[in-house]
Design brief:
Shape: elongated
Order of helices and strands: HHHHHH
Strand content: under 5%
Largest sheet: none
Structural class: mainly alpha
Radius of gyration: 25 Å
Distance between the termini: 56 Å
Number of strands: 0
Mean pLDDT: 78
Helix content: 55-70%
Length: about 180
């Protein structure tokens, strides 16, 4: 575990003034205890082995299979992110296991919670990428329309060269703009 970032998710976003903000003593103590448990589990006297219950293992297998299907259907930047989801869910599951001070096997409940958290994080990234893709496409669309307005009728090839647009993007533009 390379580093830890402390985030209080219960605090509402606030404008920053430059003043140094500190976490409450209770939160700092809780975080300190958690980090110590993680470090003891990682660097303890003996090797720490955490096994999954059969139900937890099945939850992780099902999630892995879900990510395989997502990768097969995805053609964008999310493909490599989906590839890491299942292993990240296992890592998060281990942290939740340690956080709870669990003994014995990693439970199905912890597995499902970690999967839910990783899926949520991934969906947030996907939403940001969707926004960026839409903005990029809108910019490219405007650029193509500007080039057509300046130069008049053009071949698909000339427009592609002028705007670094692929044939599919040009066809989509033609379909979305009547009379083009």
């Amino acid at each position: 575990l390379a580093r830890f970032i402390t985030v209080n998710t219960y605090v509402q976003p606030q404008m920053r003034t430059g003043e140094l903000l500190e976490f409450s003593q209770a939160l700092s103590s809780d975080w300190d205890r958690f980090i110590r448990r993680v470090l003891v589990a990682r660097d303890g006297e003996s090797e720490t082995v955490v096994t999954c219950s059969p139900e937890a293992r099945q939850a992780f297998v099902d999630f892995y299979n879900e990510t395989v299907k997502l990768r097969e259907n995805e053609t964008s930047m999310m493909r490599p992110i989906f590839a890491r989801w299942s292993e990240n869910a296992i890592r998060v599951g281990l942290l939740l296991y340690i956080l709870k001070g669990s003994q014995g096997e990693l439970s199905k409940d912890i597995a499902e919670r970690s999967i839910k958290l990783v899926r949520w994080c991934g969906n947030q990234v996907d939403g940001l990428l969707d926004y960026a893709r839409a903005k990029s496409q809108a910019t490219k669309r405007e650029r193509m329309l500007d080039v057509i307005e300046m130069r008049g009728n053009m071949t698909t090839r000339d427009l592609s060269r002028s705007c670094t647009a692929c044939k599919k993007e040009i066809e989509q533009l033609a379909q979305s703009v009547p009379g083009l």
